Amino acid sequence: MELNLTKPICFFDLETTGVNITTDRIVEISILKVYPNGKEESKTWLVNPEMPIPKEVTEIHGITNEKVANQPTFKQLAKEIHNLIKDSDLGGFNSNRFDIPLLAEEMLRAEIDFDMKNRLAIDVQTIFHKMEQRTLSAAYKFYCDKNLDNAHSAEADTKATYHILKAQIEKYNELENDTNFLSEFSSRKKFADFAGFIIYNKQGEECFSFGKHKHKKVTDILETEPGYFGWLLNADFPLYTKKILTAIKLRSFNNKLD
Question: Domain segments of the chain: what residues?
Fold first, then answer.
């Protein structure tokens, strides 16, 4: 079965220096771009993270400091990567909670205005967990009856993710071969930012999900406690979260002028 696509979708996987989306960096990125006509385009880059790769992390994905020492930095690759994905929806395994947020951070550090406004995100892991509760290697064996060789290689994981999604659509009658449906089905909660610091209430209004202002509307707090906005921008929050907060503040200001 081929995916029913109205626009390209880029399945991608990251290998990184760790799991903190704010402070860790990409060391390998693989993208498999699938077009509506079924054409596939694949690209993989090793990336110099400009920071040491911890030994315990190297033991997982096999990428050493020496292997990436002479590779381009993400900033040097950012435009090429962005040009490949800018017209596409995104798909991955645990991508909504990790790969997309970390990719967004790297793009913003490279001064590329990355956002998800006009694209969908399909998280194959979420579909898998809702249906079967397993891991990527187990998912590949379960759905495709194949062993995942070179697990934790970004290219192998990316291709496996793409084939798992196609097998999931074939297996489950309740899954529609439609990117809008799959994106909605694989989303967990409705966040305004990737990291989940800003959530939507039942009225669709942005609220804080943490701290002393938890569940309070962002616009209300920015108006009654303007210093909180400055603190947020200077604190150790993801760049994308700060971008969303700035957009909310500007929108609120413009609404007052209307």
Answer: 9-186, 198-257
Along the 258 residues of the chain, how does pLDDT read in single tens digits?
899 999 999 999 999 999 999 999 999 999 999 999 999 999 999 999 999 999 999 999 999 999 999 999 999 999 999 999 999 999 999 999 999 999 999 999 999 999 888 899 999 999 988 887 578 898 999 899 999 988 789 999 999 999 999 999 999 999 999 999 999 898 766 788 988 899 999 898 999 999 999 999 999 999 999 899 999 999 999 999 999 999 999 988 777 766
Rounded Cα distance, 155 and 152, in Å: 9
**Other C-beta atoms lying within 10 Å of the C-beta of residue 2:** 11
**Which residue type occupies 135?**
T
Q: Which residues contact 14 (CB under 8 A, 6 or more apart)?
A: 26, 28, 29, 98, 99, 102, 103, 154
The amino acid at 178: D
| Fold (CATH) for 9-186 | Nucleotidyltransferase; domain 5 (3.30.420)
Q: Are 31 and 158 in contact (CB under 8 A)?
A: yes
What are the Cα distances from residue 79, in Å, to 44, 69, 169, 223? 15, 21, 33, 37
**CA 3 – CA 124 distance, rounded (Å):** 13
pTM: 0.74
| Amino acid of residue 29 | I
Instruction: Find all residues with CB under 8 Å of 240, minimum gap 6, and list them.
Output: 101, 104, 105, 108, 114, 115, 193, 194, 195
